[in-house]
Amino acid sequence: MAKNPRLKIMKQIISDKEFERQLREARKKYVSEPEAMAVRYENGRVSVELASGWNFNFDPRGFEEFASATEADLETIGLWGQYTLACPALDVHIGIGAIILKLIGEKFLASELSRRRGQMKSEKKQNAARENGKLGGRPKKIVTSS
Predict the structure, then answer these.
(1) 86 with 92: CB under 8 angstroms?
(2) Are 41 and 60 in contact (CB under 8 A)?
(3) 3-44, pLDDT tens digit by residue?
């Protein structure tokens, strides 16, 4: 897997007091990230079971954070909360949503979302199509032979 320069995981050191504050705030908010029920490492792959019933697995060495990890390091992979994959041996924490985004690919996801939004039917789009139709529709392409 090619490394994605835009998907950079940053390590931050925060105090216990700040951690507790952020945890209290997070519990108040509705979370729209994929919730994981279980994570395990076996046979060179990380398997993730989501609360939605979906499952996926991936090669952790495709992620920069695990590139130099040993088998013993990878065997410590598990969940940290419900939304984060953690590897305590390497002090690595990666959001489940970020993993899915990297595996699917940002360009593919953006183009698929745009395609689906374009298929939506709305009153505004219908009115715009009617107005354009009154003007004669799309202009014809002029083909010039060279």
Answers:
(1) yes
(2) yes
(3) 555 555 556 677 888 888 887 877 766 556 788 999 999 999
Do 27 and 16 form a contact (C-beta atoms < 8 A)? Answer: no
Please tell me whether residue 103 adopts helix, strand or coil conformation.
helix
3-state secondary structure of 39: strand
Residue 97 backbone dihedrals phi, psi, to 5 degrees: -60, -40
Q: What is the mean pLDDT of each run of 10 residues along the chain (146 residues)?
A: 52 78 74 83 94 90 90 94 92 91 83 78 81 77 78
What does the chain come to in residues?
146
The whole-angstrom separation of Cα 26 and Cα 95 is 14
- What domains sit in the chain, N to C, each tagged with a CATH number? 16-105 (3.30.2020.40)
CB 94 within 8 A of CB 65: yes
